[in-house]
Design a protein that fits this description.
It is built from 13 helices and 4 strands. The longest helix has 30 residues. The strands form 2 sheets. A two-stranded antiparallel ribbon has the order 1-2. Strands 3-4 form a two-stranded antiparallel ribbon. The chain is 48% helix and 4% strand. It has one domain. With 369 residues, the protein is mostly helical.
Length: 369
């Protein structure tokens, strides 16, 4: 687990998970305190850490952020705001809705805690990136005008505007096979879905019975979506890091990107524990037995297999994949998230804003010397 002491040193925000009424106690990492509820949910609060960020800039002997680095950090701030929004929804229901929490715990007893911690991490990323942008003279990102999507009506869900839609997801589960294969999508490889999850909810849209097949299928969908989101973040940060010019900005991108990889490792391992369940249009098999002996699908083979990297004539290497701009860059991330249904119901202005941020990030280039 991450170092609690470093978390305790961050001030200016209150943990989102600490604001939720939990049906049973969860051990909380204590950080990001003293902000009111409404602001914690609805704003990036870039000004809260401006003094800290200015000190960091001074230590790095830099006064302003160049345009390319600012574009990269702005897109990453937007991505983290979107991640925070979806993880907040998961936390509300995984800690405040008994049937959903039970289904989540049927996958792993620690999942409610992990979900809450993942939420806190993404919130800290968004807040830090916006504060650093503001301190360096760049415009921070505010997606508040687009918090218009409805909340779940299930017990535990806060009735506030959302940026993301978790009720109609098409979850890309091909990462399961990709990371067990010696092939790399950067060289044109494609991979089948482990499980076909099409237009399904990952949180209960309304209260469902405890122990029902419906609530377990929803929790199982969420378990795979967790891995899908975080492996995408790992690729995105790795891809954009190659475009960063300033060493402090590079330190930020690689350090936050490392946490995305950490998250992916947790969810990749956990997804293999989903209980077998069948509902109309969706089947989760008993992964531990059905795929035993299949090196591309077997449950316990979670370490990334060596694959093609840089040049197919070089030896295979265990790496994050994909990392090329066309497969893992900002616009590639926006396209994948859009295809997943995460933004169903969003406005034209939302997509225009997100696409503009993505294009600017992808157009950035490394300045040397």
């Amino acid at each position: 687990m991450q170092n609690n002491n470093s978390k305790n040193q961050i001030t200016g925000l209150q943990r989102f998970s600490d604001l939720l009424p939990a049906p049973h106690p969860l051990a909380r990492r204590s950080f990001l305190r003293s902000l009111g509820l409404g602001a914690a949910l609805l704003t990036p609060v870039a000004g809260a850490l401006t003094g800290v960020a200015r000190g960091a800039l001074a230590a790095g002997n830099s006064n302003v952020i160049n345009a390319g680095d600012a574009a990269i950090l702005r897109f990453l701030a937007a991505a983290e705001l979107l991640e925070t929004d979806l993880w907040q929804q998961y936390t509300e229901l995984a800690t405040g809705n008994e049937p959903y929490m039970g289904a989540i715990e049927a996958i792993d007893d620690d999942f409610p805690q992990y979900i809450a911690d993942n939420t806190d991490d993404e919130l800290s990323h968004a807040t830090f990136l916006n504060a650093y942008l503001a301190a360096g003279g760049a415009q921070p990102v505010n997606l508040d005008p687009f918090r218009t999507l409805p909340s779940s009506q299930a017990t535990g869900a806060r009735q506030i505007g959302r940026l993301t839609n978790l009720l109609n997801l098409t979850v890309d589960t091909s990462w399961w096979i990709r990371y067990r294969s010696p092939r790399n999508p950067d060289f044109g490889a494609t991979f089948p879905q482990l499980i076909n999850i099409v237009d399904r909810p990952a949180i209960p849209p309304y209260d469902l019975p405890s122990g029902s097949k419906q609530i377990q299928a929803i929790a199982n969908t969420a378990a795979f979506h967790f891995g899908t989101i975080e492996q995408g973040g790992a690729s995105l940060y790795t891809s954009l890091a190659t475009k960063v010019s300033d060493l402090t900005a590079l330190r930020i991108v690689t350090s936050i990107g490392g946490v995305e990889v950490y998250h992916f490792a947790i969810w990749s391992d956990g997804a293999g524990n989903v209980p077998a369940v069948k509902v109309p249009g969706l089947v989760f098999p008993d992964i531990a037995t059905v795929f035993e002996g299949d090196p591309l699908r077997e449950k316990d083979l979670i370490m990334p297999e060596p694959c093609e990297f840089i040049d197919p004539n070089l030896p295979l290497c265990s790496v994050i994949r994909p990392t090329s701009p066309q497969n893992a860059g900002a616009m590639a991330a926006v396209t994948a998230l859009t295809k997943s249904g995460l933004f169903i119901g969003q406005s034209r202005e939302f997509f225009q804003t997100l696409h503009a941020l993505a294009r600017a990030a992808d157009n950035a280039y490394r300045i040397c010397g």
